[in-house]
């Protein structure tokens, strides 16, 4: 525990995926700006990707000092944030996208030994020490590592509270027969505390799938066992978005809604908010009328099937709407890097730009953007609301189905496409038109603008997320001293 002469010291270890690292960086800055010392630990693989991204930028020199990378935000902030790396158990050059199962298995079985070593070294460094460990809820080891080194365990959940509570109450789903029962039950799940009745199809894919032997399932089962021993839980949500769910969780654990954890200057194109090289499409967007362009992205790691990709591509063509499409080279797989239909790009002319990655926040906040065709990753949803952009939802895996339910059924800020392998080009074109039209789209636009205001208010000095973060700081300092 802290001696009285040094700042309270947090060690932060994000899950090594883009959608988890990004909010963790922002959380580190927030805590450091409130007087904490922070040690941020990335995996060597993520670090390598970031440095490679810097090398590809015009002014990047790859030494970690370029001005556009996400960690530049950390350096610019001038706060007490130290940075180090740890092995995830696999060689840096290993293709984690192609060998996802092996990657997950390494995180499940091997990673904790590396983490123990590095945390042990930090704690044992004379004059250093640490007080608490902030680790992603998906890790299976934090409570044990924290206990071993006398640290408090703060679990960081980067998805909505609704997803957290479904995993947290997995036993209730089992008892009631809704667990691992894809398509076999249609009656609603009406017994999760604080959650209005929910359709089984709205659960995360891992809770629906009947084969529960996968590594991802083991990670979730064990992670949610481990979080029961957490001292505090921080969630990247906003109380006003999910009031009933958050209130019910607060009765069970010290649970704080501190979202959206965005950094200052979040929507500026010179402030990087991601880990990969970002193509700038602002000049092209500047030539387009307000609200006329659809932004299309399926996040950092989900894959589309080739048939779905083709239907979406043809649907975009049919829609006649202009668009920016973030098409990762591994969107179908890292072995099929050119999956667009023949002649697709030629037919587009100036109607669209297709890029491998962008500053999503800069794009979403551009006045030309009028809609977002999204896989419903939680960060993407928060960012879309933040920019007042309604969504067309095409969830692919994990929490994205539950997130879609929030967008479409609860908040009514978007539309739904039919599920994977069922959507057609005609449906895609039709729904894009509905979302983007001044008439049929206005109800979504009005609803998302109202939610945007709630997010902004939550981050004001007396807003709910600011107050929850303040309270967390008071509570953890109480435990440290
Ligand atoms: N993102 C980005 N540029 C892109 C596409 C995505 O910076 O071209 C960022 C996006 O802003 C978000 C993150 O990558 O912060 C994706 O996280 P999300 O939770 O939406 O999806 P995931 O990648 O975890 O499936």
Automatic annotation (TrEMBL):
Protein name: Uncharacterized protein
Source superkingdom: Eukaryota
Source species of the chain: Eucalyptus grandis (Flooded gum)
């Amino acid at each position: 525990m802290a001696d009285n002469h040094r700042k309270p010291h947090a060690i932060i270890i994000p899950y090594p995926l883009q959608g988890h690292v990004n909010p963790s960086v922002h959380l580190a800055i927030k805590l450091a700006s409130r007087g904490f010392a922070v040690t941020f630990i990335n995996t060597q693989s993520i670090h390598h990707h970031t440095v490679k991204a810097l090398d590809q930028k015009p002014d990047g020199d790859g030494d970690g000092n370029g001005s556009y990378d996400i960690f530049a935000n950390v350096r610019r902030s001038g706060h007490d944030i130290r940075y180090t790396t740890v092995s995830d158990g696999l060689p840096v050059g290993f293709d984690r996208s192609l060998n996802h199962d092996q990657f997950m298995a390494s995180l499940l079985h091997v990673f904790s030994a590396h983490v123990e070593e590095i945390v042990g070294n930090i704690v044992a460094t004379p004059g250093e020490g640490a007080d608490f460990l902030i680790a992603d809820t998906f890790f299976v080891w934090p409570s044990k590592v924290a206990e071993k080194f006398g640290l408090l365990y703060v679990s960081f959940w980067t998805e909505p509270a609704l997803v957290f509570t479904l995993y947290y109450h997995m036993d209730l789903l089992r008892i009631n027969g809704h667990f691992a029962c894809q398509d076999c039950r249609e009656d609603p799940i009406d017994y999760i505390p604080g959650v209005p009745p929910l359709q089984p199809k709205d659960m995360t894919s891992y809770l629906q799938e009947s084969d529960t032997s996968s590594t991802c399932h083991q990670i979730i089962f064990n992670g949610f066992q481990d979080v029961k021993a957490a001292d505090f839980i921080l969630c990247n949500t906003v109380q006003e978005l999910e009031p009933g769910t958050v209130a019910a969780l607060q009765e069970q654990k010290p649970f704080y809604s501190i979202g959206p954890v965005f950094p200052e200057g979040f929507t500026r194109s010179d402030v990087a908010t991601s880990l990969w090289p970002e193509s700038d499409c602002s000049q092209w967007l500047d030539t387009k009328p307000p609200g006329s362009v659809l932004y299309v992205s399926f996040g950092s790691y989900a894959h589309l099937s080739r048939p779905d990709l083709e239907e979406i591509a043809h649907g975009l063509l049919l829609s006649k709407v202009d668009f920016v499409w973030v098409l990762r080279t591994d969107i179908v797989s890292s072995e099929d890097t050119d999956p667009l239909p023949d002649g697709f790009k030629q037919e587009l002319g100036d109607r669209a730009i297709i890029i491998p990655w962008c500053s999503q926040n800069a794009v979403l906040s551009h006045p030309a953007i009028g809609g977002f065709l999204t896989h419903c990753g939680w960060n993407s949803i928060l960012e879309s609301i933040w920019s007042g952009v309604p969504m067309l939802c095409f969830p692919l895996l994990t929490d994205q189905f539950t997130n879609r339910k929030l967008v479409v059924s609860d908040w009514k800020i978007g539309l739904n496409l039919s599920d994977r392998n069922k959507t057609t080009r005609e449906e895609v074109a039709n729904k894009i038109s509905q979302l983007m039209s001044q008439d049929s789209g206005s109800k979504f636009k009005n609803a998302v603008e109202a939610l945007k205001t709630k997010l902004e208010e939550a981050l004001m000095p007396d807003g709910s997320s600011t107050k929850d973060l303040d309270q967390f700081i008071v509570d953890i300092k109480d435990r440290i001293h």
